[in-house]
Amino acid sequence: MPKMNIIQKLFNIRKLQQQFYKWNREKLELHQKKQLKKIINFCRKNSEYYANLFSGSDEITLEQIPIMTKSEMMDNFDLINTRNLQKEELVAYTVAQEKKGIYSRFQGEYSIGLSSGTSGNKALTVLSQNESELYNCLLFSRNGIPKSVKKRRILFALRRNNPTFKEISNFGIHLIYIDYTLSVEEIIRLINTKKLNILSGPPSLLEIISSKKDQIDHPIEAVISYAEVLSKSTREKLEEIFEVSIIEIYQGAEGFIASTCRCGSLHLNEDVLLIETLAVDDKIGKAKNLLITDLYRTTQPIIRYEMNDIIELQETNCKCGSCFRVIEKIHGRSDDIFHLKNRKGEISYLFPDYVRRSINQASQEIEEYQAIQKAIDRIEIRLVLRNEENREDIEKNIIENLNFWANKLNAELGEVEFSNDKPERNPRSKKLIRVIRRF
Ligand SMILES: [Zn+2]
Prior knowledge:
This protein is α/β, with parallel strands linked by helices. The protein has helices at about 5-20, 25-45, 50-55, 70-75, 75-80, 85-100, 130-140, 185-195, 205-210, 230-240, 350-360, 390-410; strands at about 110-115, 120-125, 150-160, 165-170, 175-180, 200, 220-225, 245-250, 255-260, 265-270, 275-280, 290-295, 305-315, 325-335, 340, 345-350, 365-375, 380-385, 410, 415-420, 435.
């Protein structure tokens, strides 16, 4: 397939910007219907998996297509993809590249993503060159950086397993890629010498940089958060220190799911992804699991793919004018929902955001935390405090807050043990997940 030229890229970027603000719901739904039909027809002809699935039926509606889990996608990868790519070969290629700390496209064409799955199983994603360029256009047009920021010199933190930084310029934007593992001193040095005015990275890294903010010798004009859940308290803390609104980008290996609008809300990218929500058993709020269908990807079709990410949607429209739905809250992975025993002897679910809030709101003295549910009746809370003096009271507050939510569920919290250990990061993704269920 020919490479996208610069005019096509600019055209796509412009189109994506306009769609976001100017479309109404009717236009959006019509577009989704049309694209979905195209994708289904393409898959029927080019994917062995879907050809088998759709054989015998003329017209396929979305609801007729079975939901695909992460493990089903992996088990059937060779049949699902439309370019005769072999899972084993792609995994071996990517693992070898990561070990060497280099990145090049497979066969000069395919970008491969390999994430650690929930129970150690890896999730493989593949994009053709054209698809990655479209993705970049989307990222470019919806990165949320205010128009008022003219010069764009960006610190871009990624898990690269490579301690050296990489510098690139594109569309007048200057990007410095760094690995999560670079020391904070080195990051600050780069920010200063390269005059970086936009910082982007997971909130846990932004927090580390914020602790050395006084060493940055020029103003920071935008801060972008991704890859980990951004809690309300972390957002407020970062906004106070950097004196800018935090822009949130919600993306996974499976796609660029949501981006921040000019009013600061996080909108689903509904012109690129058709997003369905599945009810989960949330007795307190209105949490939903996400199912995504990518309306453009054909190398590895993503159809009714279960994300395992729990979110809550806002019921009202955003004042920015976009008809794309707004995410009110991201809880995190569904595997990390705490399971509590209720008074009927059944399981009640306590969603991660309530656990985070219970800890965050207990004290201003909390520097770091992580809650790990180890058994149905046992929770470990790692709590690093600025000042140890009030530890007993803070721990008591946390238990009270957690009990407040457990009582709402008519459930028992079980034993809560505290330690002053630092939070653990996921060994592969290096992500800091603050609420984890581990049994
Ligand atoms: Zn908006």
